[in-house]
Write a structure and sequence with these properties.
3 strands; 104 residues; Creatine Amidinohydrolase, Chain A, domain 1; 28% helix; 2 helices; single chain; alpha+beta
């Protein structure tokens, strides 16, 4: 199958894999591993909270929120508009808040 050139510079074609163009992306990491990693991270954060005699963590940095919730990192998107916050209780739920109107 012949594809239309994507780049003007022919040298960049060497980095493309035309055989994989019609195949869906698939993560090499099984879902079970991701679930265990998410649980471990929340458990670790809650443990640090309890060790510091802290009732909850309020996260507003997108990198920290990504670590805690394994959600997409929106650092560039949120650079000048804080759109996402998270609250993790030491003995309760973990809640991520996203501003609905901030996404438009």
């Amino acid at each position: 199958m012949k594809y239309a050139p994507v780049f003007k510079d022919d040298r960049k074609a060497a980095y493309l894999n035309p055989e994989g163009a019609e195949k869906p992306l698939k993560s090499p990491v099984p879902w079970e591993v991701l679930d265990r990693a998410r649980s471990y991270r929340l458990q670790r954060l809650r443990g640090r909270c309890a060790a510091a005699d802290c009732a909850a963590l309020l996260l507003y940095d997108s990198t920290n929120i990504r670590y805690a919730f394994d959600c997409s990192n929106m650092q560039v998107w949120c650079l000048h508009s804080p759109l996402r916050y998270a609250l993790i209780f030491a003995d309760g739920p973990a809640i991520m808040f996203e501003l609905r109107d901030g996404m438009t």
